[in-house]
Amino acid sequence: MTVDVNPVYEKLCPICGGRASVSEIKMYGSCRRCSTREKTVLNALTLHQVLLDEQREFNSFFQKITNGYKPWGAQETWLKRLLNNENTVIIAPTGMGKTTLLLAYALYASTRYQKKTLILTPTKTLAKQTYLKLLEYSDRLDNRRPKILYYDSSLSKKKREELLEKIKNGEYNILVLTNHFLIKRFDLLSNDHIHIVMIDDVDALLKNNKNIAKLLKLLGYSDELIEKVKEKHRIIWKIILSKTFEKEELIDQYIHKLIEIEEEIEELMRKTKKRQVIIASATGKMKGSNAKILRELLRIDVSGITIYGRNITDTYKLIDNDPSEINKILTTLGKGGLILVSPRHPFREKIDSIVQSIIKELRNKGFRVEEATPSNVKKFIEGEIDYLIGSSSYYGICVRGIDAPKTIRYVVFLGTPVFTVELDTLLASPNMLVRTALFLAEYYGENRYRRIACEIRKKIFTLTNSELRIISMLLKKKLTLNDLNNKKLENVYKSLEEYYRDILNDLKALLSREKVLEVNTLTFYYNGEKYVAMIPDVLTYIQGSGRASRLYLGRMTHGLSIIFEFHELSNLVKALDLKLSFYSGSRLFRELDKIDLEKELDEIISSRRNIDIPGSIKYKNILVVVESPTKAKSIAKFFGKPVKRKIGTVNIYEIPFVKNNEVYHLNIMATRGHIYDLTTNPKTPNHGIVFNHKEIQPHYDTIKRCRVCGHQFTYGDQCPRCGSRSYIDSLEIINVLRKLAGEAHEIYIATDPDIEGEKIAYDVYLVVKEFNKNIWRIELHEITLREFMKALERKRSIDEKLVEAEIYRRSLDRLIGFSLSHELWRKYGKKWFGAGRVQTPVLGWIIDKYNEYSRNKCRKLVFRVKDYPRIHLSICIPYKDRDLYDKLSSIGKARFKHVKTYIETINPKPPYTTDELLYDASRYGISSSTTMKIAQELFESGLITYHRTNHHYISSTGISIAMKYLEEKKLIEYSKPSHWGEPGAHEAIRPVHPLDRMDLEKTVAEGLINPIIPLTHLHYRIYDLIFKRFISSQMKPYRVLRREYLVELGEGYSEKLVLDVGIVENGFNLIVKPRVYEELRNILEFESDIELIVSRIASKTVLYNEGGIIKKMKNEGLGRPSTYAKIISSIARHGYIIRSKKRNYLIPTKTGVEVYGFLTSNYPELVSVETTRRMEEMIDRIACGELSCGEALTTIYGLIKEYKLPLSIIEVETSISS
Predict the structure, then answer these.
(1) Which candidate in 500, 946, 953, 1045 is catalytic?
(2) For residues 1146 and 1103, is the Cβ–Cβ distance under 8 A?
(3) Are strands 695-702 and 522-526 parallel, antiparallel or unpaired?
(4) Sheet with 727-729: strands ordered across
(5) Residue 52 within any structural domain of the chain
(6) One domain, residues 1149 and 1180
(7) In a domain? residue 194
(8) Is the pTM of this model over 0.90?
(9) Quick one: average pLDDT of 95-104?
(10) Are residue 331 and residue 233 in the same domain, yes or no?
(11) Strand 695-702 with 4-5, pairing
(12) pLDDT tens digits for 479-535?
């Protein structure tokens, strides 16, 4: 008989929020009870329907006031948030309809809900335009028209005073003001009158703390609430410092304080009258302490930088002081030129001279050329000016304040946009200090600087990122040693301060001679007064050049960008191009002389032809769901700097991009891992899995995570570990998923590409199924823009066979693990004891290896060969042979006799699988759990491919990365590309960029790559292992001269010693350096004094370390890449093994041996290697559809019942108490 598996989920029903099975959700869209009820109860689905109904009502209103136009895709997306009374940031260029929507919304809120709206604009001109448009729209309303006020400072004094009185008394429905009015006449505005605040050009209003403070008051936030938020930020900083200084008792204390103050903030927020804030641009940077408060209270971050799309030809031309070539090009290109001057450029005086020449020359030819002022910008947009000259400043009016797709055809940069940093400040970063020391080593060819770099690395090797920040602040003199109460950091600082002074002085001396130095993306310059580093300002360039290419009424205009840079500073353009390549995936800049200007002009003109006729614009609001916030931020950063939206405690990263003239508006959120797990409710039989006659029902509940100790649980309202009632429930994630699903056109679930990820995806699918019908699964095998775009094309449905495999694996772990663990509780009365289907046989191997180790004990002697001190001779003497031990211990000489010399070919190993990475990392003393955590972070930061894999296969993309690296390092002659087998579910673990460890460190130090999480020495060490293994796998073998010696130690005792004494032919040894004793190449026989350096009790059998036992698990077919580390951690947590201090060998405890003996004696069929291996094979068979999950679970259930193991915690507690 076929037994179906029908999981049951608590809180899944979208109507009552109660329990529902998968079959019910698929059949009814709700639980069975709600399917027969009248749909009048207020719930998630009816609220969703109410919102849709109101949206239809608004659409009719919108059509009426706009003479028949309907809201299009982007407007509909924004509207859902507005109608939901949500604080909203709208990011969109001109022509997307954001202003029209907001004015319509202000009128709708006024007439429908009698809400009063304040609209703040940056200029008087824009304020007046807004006012007139509101009047035009309101004239089309049949019912009572709202009272619209606009303060016009050009009116007579009497009329101004009348207006001010009306503003003071709140005699308006919609009030239009400039930012200047808010700042100067803030006292006239009462927060009692205002319900909605709309802000245009957020930078102008929120560029200082005082303005933000006024806005906070206007929004009705009390001084008490603001002070509480400040206190919260102070506590968070104290937690960071306490972690830095490893003060565990303080961390616990501050966490409790943080929980308390967050509860107080929430209570005050509930009492605060809510006002809706709508920000109509998101290209700003709020600064200061009040900015943090505003972000927290509004639950939105207005610091995003977004590029909707870009169709630009990026070019450059190197120049001297002669402006004639520039004039010639500007004349050829004609009107519509935006000319931007680099404000921080070191040759600014020369540029200013060129600008004056340009103005004179173009005016002589009859062109209209003016400098950028608000009035000239307007004239330029309207075609009354041919060329506009402004500043390439991020906040400049020409970079951010002009949206004129019809007018601006091309952008000319006079000097590359740059940041400048004084050398003293730049080198205060320890990583930048290392980078500069390496540059000086390369420049002078001196090892002294390389040694300094190594010394600094050693000093900062174990420092956390918080500690590095403190060192940097000390070097900048922002902190003093008196502020520090940490001896370790004090010693590091004192060492680094000396290196800092030396490197700074040496670099300044060099710059005084050379004037300009190029260090990859950094350009150092000395102007006779200041020593500065110049760093390309990528975002200003993108924003500025983007003025010539805008999405307008469904069309993307084509533009041209030209950077004119001086020959001496050509590195600025190279550096900008390199930085841009990390956004775009390829180099963008071409020499101006190598492009056809006439062809460019034709494309520029044709893309603007009939521009006012709306194009066929397409728009999709896409919800992307991943597991981790790190992955969410990494994906969002592919397209610019995202806007952060907060719903409850959940962050959503919002960013648009354009592909094939279609706007994709991404909302990316993380589930924070699984949202459901099997329940531990004692009333649910069989440890959460109900076996009925015709079906099996695993019962799932939402996961709660304790905010105090971090423990995860599913049942109850307090943490079972520490008793805290403060926890985060994944029910919040479910609610946010449903809200966002209702806003989206499509949902893409991009959880990890394995059965765990498939199960998370399936749970997300069940949660949002009734709110959105367009749900897709995508797989990301590396976190890169290229892979993300490919994944969108490879979308698929959820693979329910993979889901069943995960349900079987989890149910198997629960049934066997809980049953055996509870039996141990019953026998020993100790609730920390536990057992698992894989843990138990693995414990057995550790015990067997230890027994073998004990049987093969020996006395180990290690000698150093004095004439060749790199050679160590290791000897194991039988433990009981004391005479031989005494004899050899006193030996002072050894004779090395030549046996044979031969050439050996050494082949590279394949790139890493998970178990191989864990094995090698363990040899460096890094635990498997730490290695997996680090690898997960490297993957989510877009630095390596997916790290849970059993495959060695390398894709063509991977091979191209290796070839690019070898070519750059001039090692291409040693390449030997290999796929290492056929494609599997995943690739091997490999790097995503052609950057070795040192390249990566330089790239991060220079800001070319900005990982989402700070990289520590462990990240770099694991990355180095992965990179070297991968690159060597794509290289030729090397050939080595190998020699075998017979080493005679006194009379009657000799040992064989094999050494590599020379490289015959190079290959991958150029990357992974082997140990070669070149000094012995021509020495066949020799005699040398020897020195005993180690004498200890050892064994001929080597104990397992974590890597060794994982290798055994892989070879025996037990465990999976995702579970190797957890298995070892669980065995250690139960107290069954300990780790040796020096080498981290795994040693069984007396308890472990006793428990293992009990389990294998009484339940052999549940814990044997063979049974466990069969269970692992069943997971694969279920995933392939060869085996029924229900059938497999029924077999295991029968076996557990046969052994009469406890299937409920109640049975155990009853047994213990009796």
Answers:
(1) 946
(2) yes
(3) unpaired
(4) 712-713, 704-706, 727-729
(5) no
(6) yes
(7) yes
(8) no
(9) 83
(10) no
(11) parallel
(12) 887 777 778 888 888 889 999 999 999 999 999 999 999 988 899 999 888 899 999
